[in-house]
Amino acid sequence: MPSVIEWVLGIAILVTGLFLIFAVLMQSGKDKRLSGSIAGGAETFFGKSKANTWDKILARLTTIVSIVFGVLVLVMYVIVSGMYA
């Protein structure tokens, strides 16, 4: 029977995983070839600046949450492998 710690870690892994999926899908691509020149013409100077700031924040959050996700998975692995050893 899973303990409370396992439930909390499982829910935290699920939430961070869903956030990572959402964050990666929301980031704009780094490739600015033909599609970037077509879509970029319609943006104003302030729109580009705001989008770049949002992308930087999202990229930093993605990095932090991915590290937290990895640590949570490792902690869960140690707890579960200790139960069956």
Short recap of the structure:
Helix content is 81%, strand content 0%. With 85 residues, it is an all-alpha fold.
Give structural notes.
The longest helix has 39 residues, at 45-83. The chain is an all-alpha fold. The two termini are 16 Å apart. The protein has 3 helices and no strands. It is elongated, with a radius of gyration of 19 Å.
Estimate the helix proportion, in percent. over 70%
Q: How many strands, what sense, and barrel or not for the largest sheet?
A: none
Number of strands: 0
Number of helices: 3
Helix/strand layout:
Elements: H1 4-26, H2 34-40, H3 45-83
Keywords for this structure?
single chain; 85 residues; mainly alpha; 0% strand
